[in-house]
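can u do me a favor
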């Protein structure tokens, strides 16, 4: 175990280890430079950063801050198709390498803590890439864009006509939806429950992962989002079939602590833990990580 290689690829691009940064909004709440600092940390670690529709830095500023970084773009499909088209094509022009479509948010979930706390964004925090409004009669004071609740599988054909980026669906949790994704020829799935903030009592993503992986039968890459706190968690996700994992909250914690340096520290902790987990389980490369490493308890 003197040489252990943590590198892998996602959609053909090499990353230094199978941990990437998932789409979360409003990074300027955490640090003045917001998503720019996040993008710099991702570039420094040679991993992918997925920019959110709700970024508080412009896509242009994110790109200029980390021009050599691997970037994907996450979008909520808007009622105004022209707005959706402009966002997607703008991202592609700026060098984003994949399009992540969030499919578990036809409406915003029942965010009880936000509602009870009457949370609202401070005036200095703005969504920079398009105008987002507050829903009429909404209990939440969070600004939300005009998400189209009528979005369905047939919309993928229209999206393919306006972009050449590979399409990743974020928010799949079941075999049935995974099989539909295969039949619609998308390039990837992110198994995600939106951090548990959409429908209460949905499965943990690690519990849904095997069902989705078995359904796609190797026809596309499957990733996992949510619930990862240690390098051992990363190892288990890969053993159960994930190509890599995407981090949400831990990145925001690191960003709040010390900006780019804080995000780097979070990522380096996970990288060291994952590297040791590979050593302890005798895996010299990502390809040697298999389901044999995971034992399921039966109650």
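np, heres the sequence
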């Amino acid at each position: 175990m003197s040489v252990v290689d943590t590198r892998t690829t996602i959609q053909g691009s090499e990353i230094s280890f199978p941990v990437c940064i998932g789409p979360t909004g409003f990074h300027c709440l955490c640090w003045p430079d917001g998503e720019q600092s996040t993008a710099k940390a991702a570039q420094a670690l040679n991993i992918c950063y997925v920019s959110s529709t709700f970024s508080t830095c412009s896509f242009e500023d994110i790109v200029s801050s980390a021009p050599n970084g691997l970037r994907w773009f996450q979008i909520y499909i808007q009622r105004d198709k022209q707005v959706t088209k402009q966002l997607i094509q703008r991202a592609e022009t700026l060098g984003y390498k994949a399009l992540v479509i969030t499919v578990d948010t036809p409406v915003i979930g029942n965010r009880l803590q936000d509602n009870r706390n009457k949370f609202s964004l401070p005036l200095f925090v703005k969504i920079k890439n398009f105008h987002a409004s507050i829903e009429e009669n909404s209990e939440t004071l969070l600004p939300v864009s005009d998400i189209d609740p009528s979005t369905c599988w047939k919309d993928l054909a229209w999206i393919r006509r306006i972009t050449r980026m590979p399409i990743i669906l974020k928010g799949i949790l079941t075999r049935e939806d995974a099989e539909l994704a295969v039949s619609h020829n998308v390039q990837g799935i992110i198994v995600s429950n939106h951090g548990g903030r959409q429908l209460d009592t949905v499965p943990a993503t690690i519990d849904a992962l095997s069902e989705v992986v078995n359904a796609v039968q190797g026809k596309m890459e499957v990733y996992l989002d949510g619930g990862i706190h240690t390098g051992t968690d990363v190892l288990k996700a890969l053993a159960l079939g994930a190509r890599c994992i995407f981090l949400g909250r831990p990145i925001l914690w690191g960003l709040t602590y010390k900006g780019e340096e804080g995000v780097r520290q979070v990522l380096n902790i996970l990288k060291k833990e994952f590297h040791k987990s590979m050593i302890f389980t005798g895996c010299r490369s990502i390809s040697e990580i298999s389901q044999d490493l995971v034992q399921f308890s039966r109650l």
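The longest helix spans residues 249-280. hope that helps!!
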